[in-house]
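Tokens as discussed.
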């Protein structure tokens, strides 16, 4: 029987994309979520418990950790979730691929590289740094093998719970106002979801990925104005673009907990936020990176079919 690849959090955007990529590469896949779904060999399990995590990871060669607590509860719950996942991975004798983000660095004044200090001094950033330390310490102690794939904000088919989801793509398709969170004229690394998944699977397949973090490859940074113009032009429905500034974020945050949470990471919105992915490209290249033109077209097609009542 072929090696088993297990996807935790398989019903989320990243989990579904990783499952699709694994399947396309011919791997045997088990998808794990609390309520089932995700395709492939499905398993319902509560991975916030050690028992559930061990059952989820049983027999795995590689485990892709794409699950996370609700955004507002990261600081309180992420380390506990990681403890149980590590128990499951260790029991299986598997390799862990952590779907990570760029919060650990905190505010920066140059393109981010993997050797930058973990200087985040806000609750969600500290939680992500603590999670990464736990995983790396387990790797260094020989309990597991592990690697991290860090990506910036992403968009793509299935990308609903993202700042580049319905507020951009659905709005553009309806001829409304497509809104960018933050300054419209600051460059920002924006990842395409299938590319994120492809890179995570590469990390799972390659031994030289182990023991460190990698910035996942993405197309060239774009400003919010450039990205929204591309979305609107491709959609062909008219409408307009707008930036959501800090003042409006605070105001909306009085009524929306999700928008209020964005204040913690506003430094990602008011200055350049660029990830250097050259280490990944140099080690694993050539890599598949989708142009924003092709990615936006595919994403609009997905949102068009997902919103038949538009």
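Sequence:
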């Amino acid at each position: 029987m072929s090696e088993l690849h297990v996807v935790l959090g398989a019903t989320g955007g990243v989990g579904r994309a990783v499952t699709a990529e694994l399947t396309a590469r011919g791997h045997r896949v088990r998808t794990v979520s609390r309520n089932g779904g995700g395709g492939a060999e499905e398993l319902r399990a509560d991975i916030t418990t050690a028992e559930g995590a061990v059952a989820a990871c049983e027999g795995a060669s590689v485990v892709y950790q794409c699950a996370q607590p609700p955004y507002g509860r990261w600081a309180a719950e992420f380390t506990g979730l990681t403890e149980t996942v590590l128990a499951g991975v260790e029991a299986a004798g598997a390799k862990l691929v952590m779907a990570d983000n760029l919060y650990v660095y905190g505010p920066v004044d140059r393109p981010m590289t993997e050797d930058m200090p973990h200087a985040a001094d806000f609750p969600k950033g500290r939680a992500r740094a603590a999670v990464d330390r736990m995983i790396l310490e387990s790797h260094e102690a020989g309990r597991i093998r592990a690697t991290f794939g860090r990506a910036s904000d992403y968009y793509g088919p299935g990308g609903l719970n993202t700042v580049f989801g319905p507020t951009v793509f659905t709005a553009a398709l309806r001829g409304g106002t497509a809104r960018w969170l933050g300054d419209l004229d600051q460059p920002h690394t924006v990842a395409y979801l299938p590319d994120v998944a492809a890179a995570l699977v590469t990390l799972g397949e390659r031994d030289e990925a182990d023991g460190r973090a990698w910035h996942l490859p993405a197309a060239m940074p774009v400003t919010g104005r450039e990205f929204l113009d591309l979305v609107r032009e491709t959609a062909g429905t008219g409408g307009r673009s707008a930036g959501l500034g800090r003042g409006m974020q605070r105001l909306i945050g009085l009524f929306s907990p999700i928008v209020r949470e964005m204040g913690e990471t506003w430094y990602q919105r008011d200055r350049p936020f660029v990830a250097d992915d050259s280490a990944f490209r140099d080690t694993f290249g050539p890599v598949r990176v989708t142009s924003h033109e092709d990615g936006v077209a595919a994403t609009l097609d997905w949102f068009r079919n997902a919103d038949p009542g538009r």
